[in-house]
Amino acid sequence: MAAGVFKGMPVSTSLSASSLNDHSGAKTGLASLTSGVTVLLTLLFLAPLFSILPKPVLAALIIEAVVMGMMNVPEMRRLARVQKFDFWIAIAAIAGTLIFGVLAGVIIGIGLSLLWLVGVATHPQMPVLGRERGTQVFREVDDHPGDEVIPGVAVIRFDGGLFFATADALEDRLRDVIQSTHGITGIVLDCAGINFVDSQGTAKMAEIVKLSREAGVNLRLARLKPAVRATLARDGVIERIGEGMIHGNIFRAVEAEQSAVERRREDNPD
Predict the structure, then answer these.
(1) pLDDT digits (tens, 9 = 90+) for 186-221
(2) Which of 25, 190, 228, 260 is in the most buried spot, having the most CB atoms within 10 Å?
(3) 55-70 and 15-23 helices cross at what angle (nearest 10)?
(4) CATH number of 129-267, picked from 3.40.50.720, 3.30.750.24, 3.40.50.2300, 3.40.50.1820
């Protein structure tokens, strides 16, 4: 994320020299040789001309070269506008560069970006979905509070891969839904956001099937992708869930659950 803020890696031990090389369009090591020869010729023939310049003027030139050359100011503005967290990672990388050096700044930026990535990957969103009135469309209830929440049926969408880092989070979420939803008879898990599943993910899904059955709740999967379904099938999870519990879309899954509840009521009128 912070990578776009810095225009290039250093080509020498001087920030200003690296900035000028990058700003001049340097692409190969030949640029360092050229700048070295230029510096040598300057020292030999032009040093008397620069000797009369005040040091603050020279310092201002170096500061301008570093700040305006190494920092992509328009990109910083874009980060602040689009995503504040990215902006603060960039600020941390810049501060690390000014205090500890270019390499340390780059490492700080990469490290913070990786921590952010791990945090996002291990905490997938699992929102409750409701049906838009008069349609078959299911949307997030938090964003559309006027949508219809189906009585007795919890519709949950899982956004992310089902693997070792997220499997426990899914189990905890569904356990919480079962325990906190009064009169729940079924859970529809929207799997459209699940792009892959590993061996621990399939094992956890088998545990979730057992958990739901022990609680007397039907677990139905909707919009399951072929590759994910094949992985679950190889581990026997699809067989445990049952083919009748796999549905092409959320609306059909909810309808099937409502029909199953109605049949149970007819068979057991008491």
Answers:
(1) 999 999 999 999 999 999 999 999 999 999 999 999
(2) 190
(3) 60
(4) 3.30.750.24
